[in-house]
Amino acid sequence: MKTKSRMIKLLLMSAALSPIMAVAQGMSSNLVLLRVNDAGTALEYNANGSRHGNCMSNPGRGCVRVSGSGEVTFRLVSDRSCDSGGRWELSGVQLGGENSGAKPGNWGGLSPNAAGDFGADAQGWASTSPASGQEITLYDDNSAEYSLWYRVRASCAGEADIWFDPRFENDGTGN
Q1: Residue 120, Cβ neighbours under 10 Å: how many?
Q2: How many contiguous H segments (helices) and E segments (strands) does the chain have?
Q3: pLDDT digit string (tens) for 42-94?
Q4: pLDDT exceeds 60 at position 173
Q5: Structural domain boundaries in the chain
Q6: For site-directed labelling of 172, which of 85, 86, 118, 153 has its Cα 20 to 30 A away?
Q7: How many CA atoms lie within 13 A of 100 on its CB side?
Q8: 142 DSSP assignment
Q9: Other CB atoms within 10 Å distance of the CB of residue 138
Q10: Using CA atoms, how far apart are residues 34 and 139, in angstroms rounded to an integer?
Q11: Element (DSSP H or E) covering residue 3
Q12: How far apart are CA 133 and CA 20, in angstroms?
């Protein structure tokens, strides 16, 4: 019984220390909660349980400011059913509009620093780690100070893709 109690305490302590260890290693973790709107035509920021946005210049809904290097996770928290009978799944993150005040007409075209920070290709598609269709994570090296727009894509078989598209601000304090 004592061994089981000690194991539980150890697990609880390690779970509590995980965020502290990430900060100590210069890593940040950001979570953006999304939902499919009632019409099934767009992704929306889900304010319940998620911060409004932490950007300095534009604290808009879902704006993510990164300090140090770290992960940004997008999680779909609403009913994921779509009209075709399938389920909405997060399927990609695209970047563009570097240091622009307006959403880009064409995505991609990032500087070498920004493309390298996110492992993005020429069209701005970031390298991501899908944990499931409900969650997608990207890594940001945050090597230079800049802002850019991002858009998260959700797909469902037989439906048009839907998007959510606020901004990132990097402070250049990462790798």
Answers
A1: 22
A2: 2, 10
A3: 888 876 555 556 666 655 667 788 888 989 899 998 778 888 888 899 999 99
A4: yes
A5: 26-171
A6: 153
A7: 18
A8: -
A9: 23
A10: 18
A11: helix 2-24
A12: 28
